[in-house]
Amino acid sequence: MTSTDYRDYILPESYDRVGKSHGLDPVTYSQPVLATPQAVALKAEWARLQDEPFIGITHDGTPEPGLFTLADEGFDVELAVSAMQAMLATLTEAERAAAQKPLDHRNWRGWYNPELVFNTEGVRLENLSEASRDCFWDVLSSCTSARGFQKIRRLMKANLFLGELYDLTNIMNQWSYHFEVFGNPSVSEPWGWHIYGHHVGFNVLILGRQMVISPTFMGTEPNEVVLKSGEFFAMFKEEEAKGLALMQSLAPALQEQATIFTLMEDPAMPAWRFNFADQRHLGGAFQDNRIVPVEGACARDFTPEQRHALLDLCETFYIHWPDGPRRARIRQIEDHLDRTFFSWIGGHGDDDPFYYHIHSPVVMLEFDHHSGMWLSNTEPAKFHIHVISRIPNGNDYGRALIAAHRARNAAEGDHA
């Protein structure tokens, strides 16, 4: 049985990725790992997927139309534009050229979540000036709620903690992330930005007073963080506790319906169901067009209290969204509650590691307890957590809203 204390799984100095990595820059550290056959194959597969025309995650390969509409959701677009313009002004000409891309540039779908430097696109926050990094906090604050700002900062600091744990802050620190801007900051036209790197993939689309943050990847290993500075916190406790409470509240028949596999690495899983990079996750990096089956128990069969708990669980995945867009997002999820499915892998005892998946035409959320990457546990454990959110049927990266905006502009032009 896997210990519940991550300290029992700290890798020794003799482990190659630890002892041989001291003092290396991230690119040099990554080169031998990326040369392995497994990494070469993964990178080639990611490139193939990135080159596919964007469709979006669907359950059958065909996006359902009419799900996403333009609206005033109360987002403070002026603040976001001002913050981004201020940050861009701090960059050198070369940094701006590397960081800023056209709205439809393929790089927007090029994010990933390992600490390895799979590409050198955009700029790395760790290489920017202190003034630029200070301005980045203003950009992040302008595009998140107060709780969300804290959450993303803590995720970045959790990466620093892992670096401190192994004396590898040259590779893992709070600034170890690619940064790119897409389009020109505008109060009326679509634009956006993202950061990505170890345990963070954060994609933001802004369109007037409406915005989308999707897809997102968030993770931490371990999930209890104690920095050398004395700061300490734990991550994803709400997502974990509320997901388990909902599963435990279901009647036995619904629990059985929700449980698609009883073991986290179940021999009954088909080949497409599990892979070394994402483990149980289906919506990870480069899975923008994945066909994902609808499985599990339908919220239509839940009690009113369980339906409320499901909505509350969904909202924990969106606390980083600003208040107005978050309220609009939860209303949208509630409107499709009768078409929302909740599925589960693993046990549902208090100490069991588990995976769960929430899926409807407008939302796909995943929570997973992982086995070790920088810790040596070979079985999933509660101290390594990955959380993914996506918007199916074409609105990842706000693509459905961009299309609606362009269609409206074309129609207005026809009538001019």
UniProtKB/TrEMBL annotation:
Domain of life from the UniProt record: Bacteria
Family annotation (InterPro entries): DUF3500
The protein's name in its UniProt record: DUF3500 domain-containing protein
Upper lineage: Bacteria, Pseudomonadati, Pseudomonadota, Alphaproteobacteria, Rhodobacterales
